[in-house]
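WARN  no MSA supplied for this record, continuing single-sequence
INFO  ligand: NAP
INFO  echoing inputs
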Amino acid sequence: MNIPDLNGKTALVTGASRGIGKAIAVALAKAGAHVLALARTSGALEELDDEIKAAGGNASLIPMDLIEGDNIERLAGALTERFEKLDILVLNAAILGELAPLPDIDPKVWKQTLDLNVTANWRLLRALDPILRKSDSGHVMFLTSAVGGEYARAFWGAYAVSKAALEMLAETYAEETKKSSLHISIVNPGATRTDMRALAMPGEDPMTLPAPEELTPMIYEALADKRTELKRYSFRQWRENGN
Ligand SMILES: NC(=O)c1ccc[n+]([C@@H]2O[C@H](COP(=O)([O-])OP(=O)(O)OC[C@H]3O[C@@H](n4cnc5c(N)ncnc54)[C@H](OP(=O)(O)O)[C@@H]3O)[C@@H](O)[C@H]2O)c1
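INFO  complex generated
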């Protein structure tokens, strides 16, 4: 596995308390980055901190709800004061919402899903864009799903619509930052052994799925990829390509 040298880099990972976000946070810390780990559950973030410290890395914990009030803008203000630049932003936190036919989805759940999976990510981009642009080679990574663009799946409406919107957010930001030092990637992890997947597919044996840590080499490759255009990574395709 080629591990990029992230010493001296600062990386914010949303949804870092478990699942894919936690695995990415550990991977970035092991590569030398100072990881800013954001999620709502303090206890789980503290466990992550222990794991990162045991691996010789370092992290700062941000226990925060991304859809509560003006948390994002206040966070950006604090990060701007404390750090001169932000090198990596991993937009990972998301919820599944409700798996139901479109007419049956509770409007509150629809709103919550779009608020977290789309609007919070736009607000993070909006608020953090100035310090991202201060990095000499910044990277913004968006976590998507196959239902966000590859195909439609009945009953996954709110989540699928949110991921399709997220992909367009990423594509638009990539166009707008074309001439900057920023790199933009869209990563589709595919079916992964996490709480979200178990919620979506309760009858599935989780042991048939890759663990989140198995994504690490592909995440490292995406971060090392310095092509200027928007980069897309799909774990399934990456595996099919012999990795
Ligand atoms: N697992 C899969 O099979 C799969 C497939 C395709 C795409 N993805 C995508 O991969 C990403 C990670 O998924 P996952 O399976 O690892 O999900 P997960 O296990 O459900 O983890 C979601 C993370 O988001 C955080 N979060 C949820 N609501 C939040 C809020 N309001 N504010 C701040 N943080 C919040 C959770 O932490 P707290 O609860 O502590 O806040 C948790 O750390 C998502 O974008 C997902 O759409 C997953």
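The first strand starts at residue 10 and ends at 14.
INFO  checksum written, moving to next record
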